[in-house]
Structure formats: C-alpha cells, structure tokens
Amino acid sequence: MMQSEEIRSRFLAFFEKRGHAIIPSAPLVPLNDPSVLFNTAGMQPLVPYLLGQTHPSGTRLANSQKCVRTQDIEEVGDKTHDTFFEMLGNWSLGDYFKKEAIEWSYTFLTSKEEGLGLDPKRLYVTVFEGDENAPKDTEAFDIWKQFVPENRIYYMSAKSNWWSVGENGPCGPDTEMFYDVTTEGLGDLTKEEYMRADDAQKVVEIWNDVFMQYEKKDGKVIGKLAKANVDTGAGLERVTMVAQNTDNVFATDLFSGLITKINELATQEDVIAKRIIADHIRTSVFMISAGVFPSNTGQGYILRRLLRRAVRYSNVIGMKAGTLSHVAEAVIEKYAPIYHEVVEHKNRIIHEVNQEEIKFHQTLEKGLKEFEKGTDPFILATTYGFPIELTTELAKEKGLTIDLEDFRTKMAEHQKLSQTASAGMFKGGLANHNEKTIRLHTAHHLLLAALQQVLGRDVKQRGSNITEERLRMDFSFDRKMTDDEKKRAEEIVNESIRAGLKVVRREMSRADAEKIGAEMEFGAKYPDTVSIYFIEDVEGNPVSKEFCGGPHVLNTSELGTFKLQKEEASSQGVRRIKATLT
Ligand code: SER
Reduced to 3 DSSP states, what percent helix, strand and coil does the chain have, rounded to the nearest 5? Predict the structure, then answer.
C-alpha cells in the first residue's frame, strides 16, 4: 500500500517532471496577510503572483502547503474532515491552462507508474454551469470527455464550482474531482444521485482545479485578470485515503499511529471522540511549532479552543490528565521526517499541551456542573475557561440555545476594563519623563531585542512598567531562562550601549510599520499614522524597531551599564524581568 510520504513525493516529482519549480510550504501563520489567521489553501501565499506579480521561481509551481481550516470544526469526527491538512497544489501563472491542468490531474490520479493508480471507473467530475460572471465551461467539459464518460461529468452552479479566497482577490470557475469510496462501487449516477452520494460521503472530493481568470473586489467580480492562471488543490489526507482504499482519513497512515496511541490511553470506546482528539492535537502541534501560544485572542484563541475541546473529549473516553502530550509525541514522530519544525519545537509543544490540559482539567468538571445548573456562559468563560464555542456545543447537545448577543456585550465590557488597566500600567511607566526613566525606557527597547536574539523571534512583550529605579518587562516565554541566557541577554544590551547606537524616531503609516515588522504592544490599538523608534548603527541597520510614543535618549552611549536583576514567572507562559542602569 502506498504510504502518505510516497504520495507527497510522487506528486512533487510528477509536476517537477512537467517543468514545475517545487516551492516550500509557506509558514502556517501568514507573514504579511492580516486578512486570515492561518493559511487555508495552497494558493493563499501566492495571491500576489496570481494577481500578476512575477514569481522568482517561474510560471509553473508546485508544493505541499500546510493549511488550517476551522470553519468545519463541528464536522470533525466524520470520515473526511480535519482542521489541519496538507494541500498538494500545482500552479500555472499565465502559462498552461485548462487542457494541461485537467490532463495532468487525471494522469496523476490514475497512472500506476507516476501517480496513485486509482480506478478511473470510480471518478466523477463537476464543471461550472455558467452565470452572469462567466460562461458555461463547455471547454473543461470537452477536455474531461476524453477521460471520463460524459454521464459522469456534471454541470454545477457557482455555489460549488466557483472558487475565491474571500471578498477580494483572484477567483474563477473550477472543476472538481470526486472518488467513489464504497465497497460495492456506485457505477453510473444521475446528477441527483451523485449529489446524494456526495452528501452521504459515498463519493468524496479529492481535487479541485481552479481556472483563475477573474478578480473580485468587495465581493463582486470586477473583470478579468491580465493573465489566465491555474490553481489546483488536492488534500493529501483525502488522496491518501482513496489511494489506501479506505473511506475515512483516520484510517490512513497519517492518523493511524495517533489513533493507536489514543486507544492505549482510553478506557472507554467512542470513535468520534478519538478522531476529534487525534485531529485537534495534530493541528495544535503544527500551530505551536509555527510560534502560536494558547491565548484569548487571534491564533492563540483558536489553539486554545482546539486544545480545550481535545481535553473535553479525552475526559469523555477516560484518558488521564497529562496524557494528551503522548498523542502530541505521536504526531511529532510521524511528521519529523517531513517537517523539521515539529522536532525543533518539541519541548515547547509538549509543554504547551501539558499546561493547557492541566489548567483546563482543573476547571472542566466544576464548569460542567455549573453548566448543568444553567450558569451564565460569561461566567463559564471567565471563571472556568470555557471557550464560548464549547458552551454553545454543550447547549446544542441538550437542545438549548445560548444568548450570544448577551455574551458578547458582557465580554466586550470585561475586555474594555482589562485593557484600560494595562494601558494605564504602560502609561504609568512613561508618564514620568525624567532623565532616569527615559534612559530606562531606551534600555527596555534594547532588552526586548536582546531577548529575541537569545530566546527566539517569537518572544513578545506582554507588559511594561518603568520607575526611576528600574524597568520591568513581561514577555512571552514558557520557561525559566538559564543563567547563560540571562548573561548573554545582558551582554548584548551592554554591547549596544558601548557601540553608541543612534536612537531615531520616524513617523510612518501603520501598514508600513507592520510590514517592516516593528514590535507592537500586545492588544493595543494604533492609529493610521504611527511613531516608530529605531535604534540603529551608523549604516542604518536597526537593532530594534518598536511602535512607541517615546521619549528616548538620542544615543545609547548615554545609558551607562545595564544590569539584569531578576527573572521570574509572571503568569502562564509569561516571564518577568527587572533590570537597572548604573
Ligand atoms: N484554491 C483551491 C482550493 O482551495 C484550489 O487550490 O480548493
């Protein structure tokens, strides 16, 4: 049986042979795209090129892209949905079009020598039926006719056969390939029968070829792109499933090791719960290795929600507290040969999974009792750590509904209070503009840069307070710093002081400042034009760049000697440093 590793490499080799440059998977968390929290498709990091920019690797590209989609999270547990997946994709940037795209998809799926060797008699295809934006895709239909019987090619509406990444960007009609996963074989199907088979997961979508010729603005198709592109995506989990002759992704080699591990740890039988745990832990491993920490906003919130959902289901099947990290280890083992970052961040992954599990286990049972009593979802969230989505799910299981409006109002009020508190704290440090605090303030910037150099770029400032005597910085990091790390951070700051670096204030647009990666205060809201402080050498190479109102010294030589006084835990995943200048 062909293993997933071979499928991945066969796909890349197939397209490499046909002139495609193999590009690496972009990071799971997009670098310069604030419109999404995670990459959700292989084409996402390629949007600028699909819109016309020249790609350095040429006009034919292929890769396997790590993706996360959580909108179907409640479907996870069925046969085909997962929140993390790899998308195998090939792209033509104004190069080949429908003929080659379709022919190659078909050849890869069915060829025994070069591809998956799937049974052509189990294939069904859909093409676009046309609407006010684009004509009926008879061209794609005619190309498909050479490979698949006409009565297994169905014209479908834009609802299923028009692809776009959101309200803005490249888009176009697509053609989708489905595979019959029943044991008996379905044979010829009318359109209605095919649609019912799709609903029943008797046929599953395995590949989508998008003919990206149009552009959307604010949800409306505004016209044709200068070049006609191809964007294809095949879910590795699903093609592995059909290549391995099974009808569910959890039975493939991508998941089987995780399911075995969960079986060892569980004391109760519940197939769905086991699949959910396997899926959520796998996704969490990739999120953590992409630098995400569990938190209450953005990516961190999605991670927290997945981990807490996994904890809840681990409780259902009688897994002991502290054992989810064993499942994480199984994930790391499976992916170590392909994605080195899971090995690189192993300690942090295990640590985060353990911490989140232990923390939520402590309140889960009590919270569930409170839920039974009808306790307000706001209290469940703030006191027992129940993500609102979890409370909503619990309510749904009981046929109850949650007043989300009321929850949001209470949460907004709650957050406003805590934000004002932290804003006040920050101001408290800087309001005092005497010489000593100004010097400590500049040292504060140097310290953050030094910590990132010693501990990694994903260290972020989480709080700050400056008095005349000392600075205090809270930053995201999940363990005690070693003596050596503390010494190095201190030395780096002192070297910057001795180097006599310039401190320069520049005003720029918030977008530009974000683009150059200036450090921002966590949770703060910034205006359209912002002030950025750069600390840089004579050639203008920045040691530090931060969103900041100032004031600062003009040159770091004014600071004296920097001394790290104390490094301690502040809260979960946050460390606190106190330091002085003498
Ligand atoms: N962008 C399309 C999809 O995600 C094809 O890659 O399905």
Answer: 45, 20, 35
pLDDT surpasses 90 at 442: yes
Helices (H), 59-157: 98-110, 138-145
The atom of ligand 1 lying closest to the CA of 87 is: 6
The verdict on the CB of residue 210 being under 6 Å from ligand 1 is: yes
How far is the C-alpha of 366 from the C-alpha of 107, rounded, in Å?
Answer: 56
- CATH code that applies to domain 429-581: 3.30.980.10
Answer yes or no: is the C-beta of 42 below 6 A from any ligand 1 atom. Answer: yes
Query: Residue 170: CB within 6 Å of ligand 1?
Result: no
CATH number of 4-244: 3.30.930.10
pLDDT by residue (tens digit) across 445-504?
Answer: 999 999 999 999 889 988 888 888 899 999 999 999 999 999 999 999 999 999 889 888
Q: What is the pLDDT at residue 32?
A: 67
Is the distance from CB of 190 to CB of 196 less than 8 angstroms? no
By alpha-carbon position, which residue is closest to atom 2 of ligand 1?
233
Using most ligand atoms within 8 A of CB, pick from 50, 69, 210 the residue to mutate for ligand 1: 210
How many whole angstroms from 40 Cα to the centroid of ligand 1?
Answer: 9
CA of 165 to the centre of ligand 1 (A): 8
Domain residues of the chain, as ranges? 4-244, 252-364, 379-425, 429-581
3-state secondary structure of 559: coil
Give the mean pLDDT of 188-200. 97
Residue closest via CA to ligand 1's atom 3 equals 233
Residue 91 CA: distances (Å) to CA of 85, 209, 237, 582: 19, 9, 20, 59
Q: How far, CA to CA in Å, does 93 sit from each of 97, 106, 444, 480?
A: 9, 20, 46, 48
Structure tokens, 59: 């006009």
pTM above 0.85, yes or no: no
| Averaged pLDDT score across all residues of the chain | 91
Closest atom of ligand 1 to 233 CA is: 6
DSSP for 269-284? Answer: --HHHHHHHHHHHHHH
